[in-house]
């Protein structure tokens, strides 16, 4: 049985004070849940959030990392640096990183392998653009991204990866994929993983949906058979809304 995972991706939002106020507000409201609760914040907030999450069931993640251990990479942060401050998860290959920061399927793979080798849980994103969807390429695009992301990842490590299927046209637009459509693509991603590894491993890997998830639609999405969680941007920024998502 896969444990559901509800993750907030704050993107480039919040000061430390705002992040800590959010943590104070959600802690008592999410403490009883069976769902894995994850907050992925900008680098500047991570040490404070890790401290605030101590002794709770809330995990703290980064939104990116570099695949090298150290070196002349101005502006970048390594896996060891994240581990050093107590971060446990890292989003890799978000479409905004692919679109604005030249993230490629190859760097997604390098980062995923590095995260796993260090003991960080990678949340690996895939998803098609509107143009690709209209051209009927959704499954091909997701397959290409997933096959490359998992290249040279062992069977033992594969089940530690969390996948997030995020159709780009649904991100921050208010347009959600229908839960059936999202489930259909996610079931297909599971078939791709079964072919790469085994049915057993593919049944263990958690696959989230992301794209305009909000309290009003989270239950329907989470009721789908293959959807194991949500990666949420806008609706994760307010404590009330995030609590409703976790307690779907
Ligand atoms: O990482 C989160 C996704 O990009 C979804 O963002 P959104 O919930 O604002 O559509």
From TrEMBL:
It catalyses: D-glyceraldehyde 3-phosphate = dihydroxyacetone phosphate. Coiled coil: none annotated. InterPro entries: Aldolase_TIM, TIM_sf, TrioseP_Isoase_bac/euk, Triosephosphate_isomerase, Triosephosphate_isomerase_AS. It is found in: Cytoplasm. Keywords: Cytoplasm, Gluconeogenesis, Glycolysis, Isomerase. Pathway: Carbohydrate degradation; glycolysis; D-glyceraldehyde 3-phosphate from glycerone phosphate: step 1/1; Carbohydrate biosynthesis; gluconeogenesis. The active site is at 94 (electrophile), 166 (proton acceptor). Substrate binds at residues 9-11, 172, 212, 233-234. Its EC number is 5.3.1.1. One of its GO terms (molecular function) is triose-phosphate isomerase activity. Transmembrane segments: none annotated. Belongs to the triosephosphate isomerase family. Involved in the gluconeogenesis. Catalyzes stereospecifically the conversion of dihydroxyacetone phosphate (DHAP) to D-glyceraldehyde-3-phosphate (G3P). Homodimer. This is Triosephosphate isomerase. It comes from Fusibacter tunisiensis. The lineage of its organism: Bacteria, Bacillati, Bacillota, Clostridia, Eubacteriales. The gene is tpiA.
């Amino acid at each position: 049985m896969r444990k559901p995972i509800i993750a907030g991706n704050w993107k480039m939002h919040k000061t430390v004070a705002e992040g800590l106020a959010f943590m104070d507000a959600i802690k008592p409201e999410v403490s009883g849940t069976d769902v894995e609760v994850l907050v992925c914040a900008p680098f500047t907030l991570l040490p404070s959030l890790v401290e605030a999450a101590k002794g709770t069931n809330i995990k703290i993640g980064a939104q990116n990392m570099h695949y090298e251990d150290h070196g002349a990479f101005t502006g970048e942060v390594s896996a060891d640096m994240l581990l050093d401050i107590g971060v446990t998860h890292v989003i890799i290959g978000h479409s905004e990183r692919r679109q604005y920061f030249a993230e490629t399927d190859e760097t997604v793979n390098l980062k995923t392998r590095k995260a796993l080798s260090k003991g960080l849980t990678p949340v690996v994103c895939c998803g098609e653009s509107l143009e690709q969807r209209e051209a009927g390429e959704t499954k091909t695009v997701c397959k290409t991204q997933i096959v490359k992301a998992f290249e040279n990842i062992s069977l033992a490590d594969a089940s530690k990866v969390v996948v997030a299927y995020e159709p780009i046209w649904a991100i921050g637009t208010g347009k959600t994929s229908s839960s059936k459509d999202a489930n259909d693509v996610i079931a297909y991603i599971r078939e791709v993983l079964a072919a790469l590894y085994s049915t057993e491993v593919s049944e263990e890997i958690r696959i989230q949906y992301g794209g305009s998830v909000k309290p009003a639609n989270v239950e329907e999405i989470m009721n789908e058979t293959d959807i194991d969680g949500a990666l949420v941007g806008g609706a994760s920024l307010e404590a009330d809304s995030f609590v409703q998502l976790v307690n779907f």
